[in-house]
Design a protein that fits this description.
This protein is an alpha+beta fold. The chain has one helix at 33-46, and strands spanning 3-10, 25-30, 53-60.
Length: 61
């Protein structure tokens, strides 16, 4: 059964493949994409003023 995770952080620039050390964020696992999306929206809105803050929802089987 697939699980969903929210991961990301604050990046030096948007071309960088990894978040800056100490800014990493990880939430989950969630049973549905909808649950993960709710967490994604809440966390993104908390740091809306940080332009290099990026989170993504990942599906892992």
């Amino acid at each position: 059964m697939a699980k969903f995770y929210v991961e990301g952080g604050i990046y030096k620039d948007l071309a960088d493949p990894a978040p800056q050390p100490g800014t990493e964020e990880s939430y989950g696992p969630f049973d549905t994409e909808g649950e993960a999306d709710k967490v994604w929206r809440a966390r993104m809105s908390e740091k809306i003023d940080i332009c290099n803050h990026r989170l993504r929802v990942y599906r892992r089987d």
